[in-house]
Amino acid sequence: NKMILSITNRFVFIKTRKCGGTSIQNILKPFCSELDIVSLGFDNEINPTKPSPLEEFATLGSVKAYYNIEGFYTFGFIRNPYSIPLSRFLFEIKRGRLNLKPTKKTFNNWCINDYFTPMGRYSKDKWSNLLLQNGKPIVDDIFKLENLEESLITISNKLHLPQLKPQHSNKSNTQNFDYRKWNSISTINLVKEFFSKEVYYGKY
What pLDDT is recorded for position 49? Predict the structure, then answer.
């Protein structure tokens, strides 16, 4: 889950949580050089001997404060907010942070009691915080993870790179649980409220 500041290819990829960021980073990383920053935490994956001056979920403002990116292509990915809580739930179980069995009941209880707290730890899953300001994009392009293949064609063309191919990394939902079957009415209503900016902007 890394943001990328590529001086080599003049682009900034703003990483948003639970939106396929690791996959996108792995697709772009082969085209980066030691001039670039590929942040994981505060490590630079391109040059591990030098700490990264930018964290993996860096804002566009902090990137601009560090480096003059005038003329750089800036972009990020978004995802259907109705799918994010289940992705987060399964990821937290996979990482050993939640000691729960993945069932519809435990998921929806967790959503109601833990996930949807206004300023809680999971509020960072709101991609609007990194890609929008006053409801409008602050990057050149915002792509939907659901349209990954056509998005990669656009990115390849804009950056004059060979055709980028999808990869799937860091997948938390290995059993293909379908959020449409898992979300209760209560969870759906909480998504609408919690992710109101995301639902509105993405027309989800």
Answer: 82
